[in-house]
Protein 1
Amino acid sequence: MLTLDLTPEEARVLMQVLEACVSDMRMEISQTDNIRYKAMLKERKAALERVLQVLREQMPLPLAE
């Protein structure tokens, strides 16, 4: 298991980048005809979504102003 020590700002930026990547992958998956390539993209997307889920679970909720 790998552990990262991120500041809240770094975690937010990482989440934004991962969310954009997952969104882009949805489009690429839908436009891909090659079955093997599509399967590989789906596996990568699932891995990114797992990382995003961990980040969401561990991110402190913003304080109300």
Note: The helical segments are 8-31, 35-58.
Protein 2
Amino acid sequence: MDEYVEIWDKTGKPTGDKAFKSEVHRRGWFHPTVHVWFYTRQNQVLLQKRADTKDTFPGLWDVSVAGHIHAGETPMEAVLREVEEEIGIRILPEDLNFMGRFLSEQAHPGGILDREFQYVYLTELKVPLQALKADPKEVAALELCSLLRLAEEVWGMADVGKYVPHSKPYYSAVLKALKSRP
């Protein structure tokens, strides 16, 4: 589904314009997205395997939930919507801890230039893995992974073919935040 997203400038400020996500990717315009990392009290992290039909990084393991912020939507509204759409649960705004905003610029096959300002959140997974209902158009599989294993596998991108290649500063900040969570 192609939705309208806001176009931002290279400093992360809205320009007041919007376009379909496909055009934003084709033209390499900056735009906002959300990422949500779910963790458990047993030091596990929820990972999603991206559907094989995705335009970007098909079949790779990634953040628990991610998506574009629709035009006119706040990051919080996008988080709540994306979590329900992708894994079938509802969470509350007070359950989320804002971790930071990151810039990501990635070129993909097919002429996609994805320039995102990613709003990243952490939250505890309060239901069993079996209670999640992955949207097959978005998510091929869900898995709980130990924080230690995730750190070993993404640190320095030791397993490049398995995970979405987020930047080292991004993974470093996420791993640090997950390790030091309350």
Note: DSSP finds four helices and nine strands in the chain.
Protein 3
Amino acid sequence: MKTKTTKFIFKTLILFPFGFGLWTMINGIENFHWFFPTLIGLVVAFGVIFWNLFDYEKFNGMEMIDFLETNHKLEIQNSDKNWTQINGLIDQSIVSLKKLEKTDTSLKVEIPRKFFDSILTAERTKSGITIQIEKKGIFKFLPDNAENYRTLQKFGRELKTTANTVYN
């Protein structure tokens, strides 16, 4: 998407069927009129996206690919120091993280959230270390009040690398 406005409208249209279906399920099909379910569907979708918008707007340097999304990626320089720091941050976390997978070159943990948990994956390759975070479950398309982006930014700040940082 080229602009924040088009992404906002696109996400609103994706959520529209949920509000529309909710209204239809509550009030039944026999009293079905197209205006009220459509209006409620748009209001619910707009409300959810608008509620998330302000949390994403707090980050001035956010790329368009990260705006209103829950999947984020951070690439850092491959070094033993960075890999040890990543493992240390996971082990010393204040929140209890569920380790799903841990090898010499990869690490996968589950981060508990209020509604839907997130999965943080760190993978070490010859070209660099890739840290990726995404929402767990079937609702990956819903914005998450920038929780995943905030978590990834904290990882980047904690690592304090001087290497080129790439956000994808």
Note: The two ends are 14 Å apart (CA to CA).
Protein 4
Amino acid sequence: MDSLLPERGVLVLDGGLATRLEDLGCDLSDDLWSARLLQDDPALIRRAHRDFFAAGADVAVSAAYQASVPGFTRRGLGAAEARALIVRSVELARQARDEHGGGLVAAGIGPYGAARADGSEYTGAYDLDEDGLVAWHRERWHLLADSGADLMACETVPSAAEARALVRLLEETPHIGAWVSFSCRDGEHISDGTPLADCAAALARHPRVLAVGVNCTPPRHIPALLGRISGVPAVAYPNSGEQWDPRARRWRGARDPVAFGAAARDWRAAGAALIGGCCRTTPEHIRQIRAHLD
């Protein structure tokens, strides 16, 4: 991990890719979410990546969070075209990186729950055991590991079993490393109730687990959660702090990029070496993170 970190000892990640795409006018209200645009409007994905790089991000996470071969084939695509679209997610991020003039590209590995599109990435209530999760992730994992990405970003992982499954796949691709980032229910536990400290301790033993941390979790929990991680660099990219109202189908609260950027200093002091934003965070949030950290 040390070889990836700049002299200042922190990498700034990008923000909410889907949020940026929605702000650019996209309707992402289907099961594929932002992955739909890998087929329908790849140039817009490239633009969103470029916007985050321009705001100060060092790392772009590719638009593969909700992408899967079964998901694309359910829409009538052939398996070969589905595989090509998954690889395209990294190609678009690399193009944006090159247009910007530098940075890293992480291949986005969303959880099984993201492909189910039923909210289970925030509960870990799955119908697959660890072996089943290895089998489900394997094809996409190898496609992205061989896509030219600099590393893998295993994100919004809700369960200890899924984290173990992803590390088993990491063993199959010795040429690349990964970070593992969990969705968390509070300041101590990941979404399935496992203590984050236990997950971090197990993952820290693997030499190619580059960082362990938290994403898509309210900012108020981040300092306590970072305190549960030791023996490995920490990654933190929470959501904006707004709350989704499922009845009104709207976000409640206000986006405050300045406060978010100021909080990033506390996350850095708590040990985070990779810091960015998740849902509802924008290029302005990333600009404020960069300003406050610099």
Note: The chain has one domain: 11-293.
